[in-house]
User: Which sequence fits this backbone?
């Protein structure tokens, strides 16, 4: 009897577990499509994340300024060169700033307590300190761009430097001739005491300063982009990067001076680029840039890019009031008349370049030069 009861109870329990197992299997069968769909979505998301990460890595590799990779979309290449510009500029300036601080301490001054050299000495140290920026730029070009210095416009044709210097004399002269008849600038003669030693040192400083800006904007940026990007875009990028460092001093003035100042910066930067194209090197732009600054600051004694620090000059030329004719506190580099002179110069340069190209094209199409034609006639 006990055996019968045991067998019957066992069958009941077995039947219960079998029914539960059937229910579980039906539940799994019902939810299995949802589980598969979830797993499919999960793998898809992971795949998308992997693709996104791969694209991000490729993007960072492309714009990394510490490699010489050039095969990429032009926009990414422009970003890469812009990053290289700021890297060279601010790395060089940071090192130069550290050296200046050390010079102060060596002279027994603590610059963190306001113990600094005179404004004239600081100006000279700043300009000559740009040698560090030049060195960083050249080192970057050799190590990471892996190209000869001729690839950034440093060629043996140094004579074009003096052509740029002569052009600077003409541009400043015509700008003064345009402004002075309006009475916005007055001439008060020659200074009685002229510190020629300081003027000579400032000339050297401006040679360094002008070369630094041109090696960055025209040497590094322009020559890196000219074979990859359209010419207007190449000039535009180098011009924007030329303007940015000038904005802090320019933004201190009234809106009218800011607008005209930016216009003048655009025009003079275009002239620098046209000189670079015409002479196929940076020397002409360097000469124009350095001598332009030197004449305004140390020959005429006018404000230079908003710098009104009193320093040695030859002629006593002063602005009368602050207006759009004399550029106000920024100097004639924010003058509307200077803008007109620079715009006229651009048209003249383009005309001369076009005429030169036209002559070269005609010479290439002419089977015999005049000299060869004459020799053939004699035969």
Assistant:
């Amino acid at each position: 009897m006990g055996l019968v009861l045991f067998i019957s109870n066992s069958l009941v329990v077995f039947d219960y577990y079998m029914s539960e197992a059937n229910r579980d299997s039906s539940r799994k069968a019902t939810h299995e499509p949802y589980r598969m769909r979830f797993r499919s979505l999960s793998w898809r998301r992971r795949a998308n994340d992997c693709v996104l990460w791969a694209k991000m890595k490729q993007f960072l590799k492309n714009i990394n300024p510490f490699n010489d990779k050039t095969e990429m979309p032009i926009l990414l290449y422009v970003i890469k060169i812009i990053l290289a510009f700021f890297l060279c500029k601010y790395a060089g300036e940071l090192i130069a700033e550290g050296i200046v601080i050390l010079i102060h301490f060596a002279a027994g001054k603590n610059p963190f307590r306001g113990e600094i050299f005179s404004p004239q000495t600081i100006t000279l140290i700043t300009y000559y300190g740009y040698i560090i920026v030049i060195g960083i730029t050249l080192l970057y070009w050799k190590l990471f761009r892996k190209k000869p210095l001729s690839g950034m416009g440093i060629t043996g044709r140094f004579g074009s430097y003096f052509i740029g210097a002569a052009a600077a004399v003409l541009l400043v002269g015509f700008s003064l001739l345009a402004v002075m008849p309006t009475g916005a600038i007055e001439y008060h003669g020659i200074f009685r005491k002229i510190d020629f030693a300081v003027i000579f040192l400032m000339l050297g400083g401006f040679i360094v300063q002008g070369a630094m800006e041109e090696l960055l904007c025209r040497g590094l940026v322009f020559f890196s982009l000219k074979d990859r990007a359209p010419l207007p875009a190449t000039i535009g990028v180098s011009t924007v990067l030329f303007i940015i460092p000038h904005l802090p001093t320019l933004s201190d003035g009234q809106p009218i001076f800011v607008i005209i100042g930016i216009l003048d910066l655009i025009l003079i930067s275009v002239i620098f680029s046209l000189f670079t194209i015409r002479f196929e090197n940076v020397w002409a732009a360097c000469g124009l840039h350095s001598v332009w600054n030197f004449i305004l600051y140390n020959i005429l004694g006018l404000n230079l890019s908003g710098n009104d620090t009193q320093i040695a000059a030859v002629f006593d030329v002063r602005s009368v009031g602050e207006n759009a004719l004399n550029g106000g506190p920024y100097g004639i580099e924010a003058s509307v008349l200077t803008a007109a002179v620079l715009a006229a110069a651009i048209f003249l340069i383009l005309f001369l370049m076009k005429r030169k190209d036209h002559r070269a094209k005609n010479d290439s199409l002419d089977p015999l030069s005049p000299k060869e034609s004459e020799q053939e006639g004699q035969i």
